[in-house]
Amino acid sequence: ATMKPAVEKAKPVFLTKAQREELALQRLEAKRVEQEEKAKIAQTAHNNFITGKTLEDKKREERLAREKEEKERERRVKEESKESKERDHEVKAIHEHYLGGGEKKKRITKPSDKFAKIFQFDWEETDDTSRNDVNPLYNNRVKINALFGRGYIAGVDQKEQRKDSNFLMSLSEKRINEANRYEDTSEILTEEQKRERARAREEAAQEFKRRRIQELSSLDKQVDSKMGSHWSEKALADMTERDWRIFREDFDIRIQGGRATLPLRFWNEANFPPAVVKAIEAAGYEKPSPIQRQAVPIGLSGRDIIGIAETGSGKTCAFLLPLVCYLLRLPKEYIDRVQAQGPLAVIMAPTRELAQQIEEECIKLLKFTNFRTVSVVGGQSIQDQGFTLRNGVEIVIGTPGRMLDCIENNYLVLNQCNYVVLDEADRMIDMGFEPQVVAVLEAMGGLLKDEDEEQAELQLKQNEGAETAKQIFRVTAMFSATMPPAVEQIARTFLRHPVLVRIGDEDSGKNKRIEQRVLFVPEAQKKSKVVEELRRMASSDKVIVFVNSKKQGDNLGRHLDTLGYHSGILHGGRSQDQREETLDQFRSGEVQVLVATDVAARGLDIPDVSHVINFDCPNKIQSYCHRIGRTGRAGKFGTATTFLTEGDTEVMYDLKNYLESTSTPVPSQLAHHAAAQAPVGTRDDKGKLLGTKKDSVQYIS
Fold first, then answer.
1. DSSP string for residues in 283-331
2. What is the DSSP string of 679-694?
3. Do residues 394 and 338 touch, judged by C-beta distance below 8 A?
4. How far apart are CA 375 and CA 398, in angstroms?
5. Class of 514-695 per CATH?
6. DSSP 449
7. pLDDT of residue 398
8. S-S: 690 plus which of 58, 422, 596, 678, CB 3.0-4.6 Å?
């Protein structure tokens, strides 16, 4: 009985069709009501979103309105307070004006005014109280008579001192009068003898005065000639310290460190051997250049030297002349041993072209000697170079890499090499030759001078009379445009008490004789622009066009050839024979335009280059400096044109500073460019990278 309701409930209920339809309608109605509620909520939310006035927005607006009202109330209170103060001041001023009663401020007396009347004297502050003093020492000052009237006081004009000095004349007259009185009292003379003696004394006194006046006059003339004449008109013995100072200022010579010798005025004062004098005359060197005037005497003295001078200043001759003189002073047994013991001097240069150029200059100076030289560079057969080395040479010129190869392959030994020259030392370091340079220097057999300067001076004197290899100490000459840390490290290691010679001011490496032009040119218009620049030049002008890549150089060279320009291409991808032929053609004028990479930017001496064009702007300012230094050499003027694009941001800051330092107008587009305002990678206080492209000012032409 208890199970019956549950069973009944579990049984399925069968509905009629009408019941089922009624239930379906109820479900649809409930669903419709639910959807209408959702639509209402959505519409309300949509309306609130459109009007922007949600509950939070309304609260925020109310809060802002209250704050605004409070601020307005405070402003009105301040204005009322200000107006009240102004009214009070006005009332007070009117009251004081008509009724008086203003407070009198207490005057504070300064200490200087308070005690001014205590020290009252009979003279003014401007009066000289030392005059008319009762003490005669102040009126009659003691005169110093150095060396009994023959000497002089330092710092005072000698001519003026001679005018005021009568001590010697007075002393002589006094001694003569005393001698005369002694003679008159010691002898008995007749009147005739007395008159004769008086006449002789008068003549002697007149003769003494005449000689003294003549002596003073000749001294004045000598001083005037020494002080007034130019150093070029004086004999070497008459040169004073002041003359040498003026001489160095005239040629902008600055020396630092070491014990520098006096500079060289003329070739005939250097006491060169006859063979060197003939070579100088044959080469047509009329007068020394500034670097030669100071570097040659230092080299002749056997001291180490670091020379820094602008391009085209004659640095090659500055180190070759002392080197040749050094070889001529050596005993004959050293020259006889070169085949077995190796060369006597080594010159290292960064590039093949520079090494061969030094060799050509060296051959000129060795013309009247029996010394031999050879260039050891890449691109040529090492076997042929080794054969020449085994036959014996006195001077070896080469690049560090090939020279080290010759040493490691036993083609070259440096057992008696005591003279080494590093030309363009900073360029060798930049090109990655530091290990090779150090290895070659360590392979040399000569001894380094002592680190103690006094001991090193004694060793220099030993060098003059050396008879054995152990007594000869190494001489190192380093020439560089800059002094990076790696070059300084080499100098500290292998140079002893070097004399640093700079030609020019701190910006001596900056080419101030070159007209620099910077043009903003789109990349696609560079070729047409370079042709436009070439058309402006005379047919006899020599032009170097610098590019950053070998491919760009080949493309530009072919483009210029198709337009009828006689152009040559110079880069590291060409063979040694091709490079030498191109340089010879350019020097002779057969080729007017030389398209080159940075291989031609330093060291090469190509005369009469009138224009340099940077088709591709270098990414370092040092490369820019050396590129434009191919023109304006040896005191001449030149022009350098640089094509700048928006992609050259890395160099813009340094380029702008360089132009300013050489007094060159900076183009407006470069001066206002964002990349020119700070060095690459600089960030501001917030960490933002400066000089980005979005900060640039775009110029539309």
1. HT--S--HHHHHHHHHHHTT--EEEE--TTS-HHHHHHHHHHHHHHHS-
2. -TT-B-TT-PBSS-GG
3. yes
4. 5
5. alpha beta
6. P
7. 92
8. 678
Q: Domain boundaries in the chain?
A: 149-184+191-227, 256-503, 514-695
Evaluated on CA atoms 229, 230, 233, 234, the torsion sign reads positive
Rounded Cα distance between 136 and 134, Å, is: 6
Average pLDDT of the residues in 556-560: 88
Residue 561 has pLDDT above 80, yes or no: yes
Cα–Cα distance list, 427 to 28, 350, 402, 486, 527 (Å): 93, 6, 16, 11, 30
How much is the pLDDT for 650? Answer: 87
CB 220 within 8 A of CB 159: yes
What whole-number distance in Å separates Cα of residue 575 and Cα of residue 560?
21
Of 536, 316, 497, 337, the C-alpha closest to 422 is 316
Reply yes or no on whether the pLDDT at 565 is more than 50. Answer: yes
Q: What is the pLDDT of residues 529-556, one digit of tens each?
A: 888 888 888 877 889 999 988 888 888 8
Q: What is the CA radius of gyration of the chain?
A: 47
Report which secondary-structure segment, H or E, holds 567.
strand 567-570
Whole-number Å distance between alpha carbons of 648 and 614 = 12
Six-digit token pair at 61?
Answer: 């607006």
Structure tokens at 167: 């001590």
Can you count the helices (H) and strands (E) in the chain? 27, 14
Q: Please name the amino acid found at residue 1.
A: A
Q: Which CATH architecture has domain 256-503?
A: 3-Layer(aba) Sandwich (3.40)
Name every residue whose Cβ is closer than 8 Å to that of residue 425 and which is 6 or more positions away in sequence.
Answer: 437, 478, 479, 480, 487, 490
Q: Residues 6 or more apart from 597 whose CB is under 8 A from it?
A: 546, 547, 548, 549, 550, 553, 570, 571, 572
The closest alpha carbon to 209, from 239, 186, 176, 238, belongs to 176
pLDDT(508) > 50: no
Q: Report the SS3 class of residue 602.
A: coil
Structure tokens belonging to residue 287: 């007068």
Tens digit of each residue's pLDDT (9 = 90 or more) over 412-438 = 998 888 899 998 888 888 888 888 999
Provide the mean pLDDT of the chain: 80
The span from the CA of 477 to the CA of 471, in Å, is: 19
